[in-house]
Description:
This protein is an alpha+beta fold. Helix content is 32%, strand content 19%. It contains two helices and two strands, in the order H-E-H-E. The protein has a two-stranded parallel sheet. It is elongated, with a radius of gyration of 24 Å. The chain starts with a helix and ends in an 8-residue tail after the last strand. 0% of the residues are buried.
Amino acid sequence: MDLTRDIDSYKRRLNKIAPRVDPPKLKMNIFTEEEWNNKKPTSKKSQWELNLIIEEKRPLSK
Length: 62
């Protein structure tokens, strides 16, 4: 018994009933600490946007 035909039939029926929703576009910005400090603020920030700041290596204090 091949279930592929049944599964395809169920998929077609489901696609007719439930509309397909596009997922949000994820965005990741990577900056060095210097770039981040000199960066001009942007007003077009999405809730799906992530900023990653790589800090400069600090000298060890003794």
